[in-house]
C-alpha cells in the first residue's frame, strides 16, 4: 500500500477511518431521504433522547435541517455520540424532562451570544440547536 | 425674487453678498438661513421649476467602474434630487467621525458634537422634527411596545424618521420667491468658477443658459452646492488659473467617491411570534404624525473590537406561512419549504408555550422578513470622478465615474449579516438564513443608494482634503462647498439630514464672518 490515508501502521487508525466512512454513508443516506419514513424503533438510545426531542415541535421539519447538518458533520451521525455531545453542552441529565426546555433555551442563547454557530443550509444556527435537529434526523431514521 | 436667466440680457453681471451654486436641499437650506437684511443672496439653479429633458441630460456621463445611473440618481431643477428622494433620515453615528486605525483615510476634523446642535433645524427642514433618532425611550413609550433588547451587545436600536418626503422645490419655492433679500436665478448653469490670477480667491461665476445666454455673478463669497457628482465636476472644469482645477493642487478633487452599497435578497429572517419583533422593527409606525422605523446598527464596541465598517439594517415582513402550505409547495419552492421547516423546527424557541402561536389561526407558523442594508464603504482614492472626453450640450466635459468597492467593504458586510443573525436568535426573535456566498465577490445585486459622497472631502490637511473644517476650499478665501461631497467618511446613514445639518453649520460660520 502506498503512503496515503490508510498508511498508518496501527489498526486503530484504520478502524476509525472505516467508522467515519460508515457514518458518512449514514449521513448521506439520511440526506438523500432514503431512511425517511422507516418505522421508528424504540431502541434504548432513542428512548433516552425522547425528553430532548420533546422540545422540538415538528420533528420532521427538524430532521430536514438535521440531515443537512449531518452531511457537513458525518462524524456525528451516531445517536449515542450526538446524545453525549448534547449532554456535555447542556451540562445536564438530558433525561430530566422538567428542566430540559429551560436548559436548552439557555444554552441556545449562550451559543448565539458567544458565536458558537454553524451554518446549516444557510441558516445560522447555534451548535446545540443544530445537533438537536441532527438528533431528530437520526431518531426518525430509527 | 425669481428670475429666469433667459429673460436677462446677454452679458449681464449680477452682484450679491453670497452666491450659491445649486438649488437642491443644500443650496436652498443655506439660502434660507443666510438671506436677510444686509445679506443679499443669489441662488443659481440650472433647472426651472419642473424637470426638463434637455436640462436633465446635462447630468449624463460615462461609467468606468461599477455601473452607476449618473442621470437617474440626480434631478436637475429647483429642489434638486429631493424631487424623488425617499425621505429616510438619520444622523451619522458618533463613531463615523472618528479616526479608526482599521479604516484608511477615516476621521473628520470634528466629532458628531459639532453637528448635534444643527440636527433639530435639519429635522424641521425635512418635516420630521423633533429629532428622536436615538431616543429609544421615546419610541418605546409612544408605540406602547417594548424594544428588542439585544443580549450579545452587538446591535443597538436606532431610528429612521421619514420625511413626507419634503420636495424642497415645492415646499420652499414661495418663501424663496417672496424673500426680499434673495434672488433665485433659474435656467442658469454655472459653467465655471473663475479665479483671480493669484488663485487665492474667486473673481466671479460664469453662467450659460441652454438657449445661449451668458451671464456673470459676482459676490464676496460663494457656496458650491451642486451635488456630490457635480461639485467635483465644476471644480475640475474651472481650470483657467489652476490647470488641474480649482482646489485641486493635491489631486484630491473627485477622488474618494463613496456610495453606500445596498444589497438585496442576501438573507431571510423567519419569526414565529410577531410579538417578539414589535411593529416598529417591521414597518413604519406613525407617532404624533411622524413615521419611524428601527435601524439595526452595530454597537461601536463591536466595530472597534472586530475592526468593521458601519452598516444599518432594516427588516420588513414579506410573507406568512401556515403549516398547511407545505402541501401546496412544488419541487422548486425550496426557499419556502426551508423557511417553513425552520419555523416549525424552532417553534418552541421562538414562541411561548406549546400551543398555537395564534389561537385564532392554529395552523399559523410565522412570517418571513426581507432585510435591507446600507453599508459603509472604505474611503478609497481610486474610486473617483474625473472628466470624460465627451461633452454636454453646453460643450462642457461630462463626468467619468469609476466607482469601486473593496474586499474590506465586502468582508465587513458579510460579518455584519452574521452578527445580525446572532443577535436576533439570541434575543429569541427568529432565525436568519444567509443567501450570499462568502466567496470574495460582491453579490451581483449590489447597487448604490443614490448617495454621492466624498469627492471634495473635508480635512484640516490640504494634502488630504479639498475643504477645511469650515467647508472652505483650501487655498481659496471665498469658496465654500456644501453637500455630501465634503463627507470624509460615509457612515451608513442616509446623507440628506447630515447635509442639512452641515449646511446650517456652514451658514452659522458664514454669518460670523466680516461682511
Ligand atoms: C431615488 C433617490 C432616493 C433617495 N432617497 C434618499 C433618502 O431616502 N434619504 C436621503 O438622505 N437621501 C436620499 N437620496 C439622496 C438625496 O436626494 C440627496 O442626498 C440630496 O438631494 C442632495 O442634496 P444636494 O442639494 O446636495 O444635491 P442635489 O439634490 O443633487 O441638488 C443639486 C442642485 O444643483 C443644481 N445644479 C447642478 N449643477 C448645476 C450647475 N452647473 N449650475 C447650477 N445649478 C446646478 C441641480 O439642478 C440641483 O438642483 C435619494 C436620491 C435618489 C436619487
TrEMBL record, chain A:
InterPro entries: TAT_signal (IPR006311). This is Uncharacterized protein.
Automatic annotation (TrEMBL), chain B:
InterPro entries: FAD/NAD-bd_sf, GMC_OxRtase_C, P2Ox-like. Residues 445-465 are annotated as: Disordered. This is GMC family oxidoreductase. The lineage of its organism: Bacteria, Pseudomonadati, Pseudomonadota, Gammaproteobacteria, Chromatiales. Belongs to the GMC oxidoreductase family. It comes from Thiorhodococcus mannitoliphagus. It comes from the Bacteria. Gene3D superfamilies: FAD/NAD(P)-binding domain (3.50.50.60). Keywords: FAD, Flavoprotein, Oxidoreductase. Residues 379-503 form the Glucose-methanol-choline oxidoreductase C-terminal domain. Its cofactor is FAD. Pfam families: GMC_oxred_C. GO terms for molecular function: oxidoreductase activity, acting on CH-OH group of donors. The keyword Magnesium does not apply.
Amino acid at each position: 500500500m502506498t503512503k496515503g490515508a490508510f498508511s498508518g501502521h496501527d489498526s486503530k487508525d484504520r478502524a476509525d477511518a472505516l467508522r467515519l466512512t460508515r457514518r458518512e454513508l449514514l449521513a448521506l443516506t439520511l440526506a438523500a431521504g432514503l431512511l425517511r419514513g422507516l418505522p421508528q424503533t424504540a431502541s434504548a438510545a432513542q428512548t433516552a433522547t425522547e425528553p430532548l426531542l420533546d422540545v422540538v415541535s415538528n420533528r420532521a421539519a427538524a430532521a430536514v435541517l438535521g440531515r443537512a447538518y449531518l452531511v457537513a458533520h458525518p462524524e456525528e451521525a451516531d445517536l449515542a455520540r450526538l446524545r453525549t455531545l448534547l449532554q456535555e453542552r447542556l451540562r445536564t441529565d438530558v433525561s430530566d424532562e422538567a428542566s430540559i426546555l429551560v436548559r436548552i433555551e439557555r444554552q441556545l442563547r449562550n451559543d448565539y451570544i458567544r458565536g458558537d454557530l454553524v451554518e446549516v443550509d444557510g441558516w445560522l444556527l447555534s451548535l446545540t440547536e443544530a445537533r438537536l435537529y441532527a438528533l431528530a434526523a437520526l431518531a426518525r431514521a430509527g | 425674487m425669481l428670475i429666469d436667466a433667459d429673460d436677462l440680457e446677454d452679458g449681464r453681471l449680477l452682484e450679491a453678498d453670497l452666491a450659491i451654486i445649486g438649488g437642491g436641499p443644500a443650496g436652498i437650506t443655506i439660502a434660507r438661513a443666510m438671506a436677510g437684511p444686509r445679506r443679499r443672496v443669489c441662488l443659481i439653479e440650472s433647472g426651472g421649476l419642473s424637470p426638463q429633458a434637455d436640462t436633465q441630460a446635462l447630468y449624463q456621463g460615462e461609467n468606468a467602474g461599477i455601473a452607476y445611473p449618473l442621470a437617474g440618481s440626480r434631478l436637475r431643477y429647483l429642489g434638486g434630487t429631493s424631487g424623488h428622494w425617499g425621505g429616510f433620515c438619520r444622523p451619522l453615528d458618533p463613531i463615523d467621525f472618528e479616526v479608526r486605525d482599521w479604516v484608511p483615510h477615516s476621521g473628520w476634523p470634528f466629532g458628531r458634537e459639532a453637528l448635534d446642535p444643527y440636527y433639530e433645524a435639519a429635522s424641521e427642514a425635512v418635516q420630521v422634527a423633533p429629532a428622536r433618532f436615538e431616543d429609544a425611550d421615546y419610541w418605546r413609550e409612544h408605540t406602547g411596545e417594548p424594544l428588542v433588547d439585544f443580549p450579545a451587545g452587538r446591535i443597538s436600536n436606532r431610528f429612521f424618521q421619514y420625511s413626507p418626503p419634503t420636495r424642497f422645490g415645492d415646499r420652499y419655492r414661495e418663501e424663496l420667491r417672496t424673500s426680499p433679500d434673495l434672488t433665485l436665478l433659474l435656467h442658469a448653469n454655472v459653467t465655471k468658477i473663475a479665479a483671480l490670477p493669484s488663485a487665492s480667491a474667486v473673481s466671479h461665476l460664469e453662467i450659460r443658459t441652454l438657449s445661449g445666454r451668458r451671464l456673470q455673478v459676482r459676490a464676496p463669497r460663494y457656496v458650491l452646492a451642486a451635488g456630490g457628482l457635480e461639485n467635483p465636476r465644476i471644480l475640475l472644469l474651472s481650470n483657467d488659473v489652476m490647470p488641474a482645477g480649482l482646489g485641486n493642487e493635491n489631486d484630491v478633487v473627485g477622488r474618494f467617491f463613496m456610495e453606500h452599497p445596498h444589497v438585496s435578497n442576501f438573507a431571510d429572517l423567519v419569526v414565529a411570534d410577531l410579538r417578539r419583533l414589535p411593529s416598529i422593527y417591521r414597518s413604519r409606525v406613525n407617532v404624533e404624525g411622524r413615521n419611524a422605523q428601527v435601524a439595526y446598527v452595530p454597537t461601536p464596541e463591536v466595530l472597534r473590537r472586530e475592526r468593521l465598517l458601519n452598516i444599518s439594517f432594516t427588516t420588513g415582513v414579506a410573507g406568512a406561512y401556515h403549516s398547511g402550505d407545505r402541501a401546496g409547495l412544488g419541487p422548486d419552492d425550496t426557499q419556502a419549504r426551508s423557511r417553513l421547516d425552520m419555523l416549525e423546527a424552532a417553534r418552541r424557541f421562538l414562541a411561548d408555550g406549546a400551543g398555537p402561536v395564534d389561537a385564532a389561526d392554529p395552523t399559523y407558523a410565522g412570517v418571513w422578513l426581507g432585510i435591507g442594508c446600507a453599508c459603509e464603504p472604505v474611503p478609497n482614492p481610486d474610486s473617483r470622478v474625473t472628466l470624460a472626453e465627451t461633452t454636454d450640450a453646453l460643450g462642457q466635459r461630462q463626468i467619468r465615474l469609476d466607482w469601486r468597492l473593496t474586499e474590506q467593504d465586502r468582508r465587513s458586510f458579510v460579518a455584519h449579516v452574521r452578527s445580525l443573525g446572532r443577535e436576533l436568535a439570541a434575543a429569541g426573535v427568529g432565525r436568519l438564513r444567509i443567501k450570499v456566498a462568502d466567496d470574495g465577490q460582491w453579490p451581483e445585486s449590489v447597487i448604490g443608494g443614490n448617495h454621492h459622497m466624498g469627492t471634495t472631502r473635508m480635512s484640516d490637511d490640504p494634502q488630504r482634503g479639498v475643504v477645511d473644517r469650515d467647508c472652505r476650499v483650501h487655498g481659496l478665501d471665498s469658496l465654500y462647498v456644501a453637500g455630501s461631497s465634503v463627507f470624509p467618511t460615509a457612515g451608513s446613514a442616509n446623507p440628506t439630514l447630515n447635509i442639512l445639518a452641515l449646511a446650517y453649520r456652514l451658514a452659522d460660520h458664514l454669518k460670523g464672518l466680516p461682511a
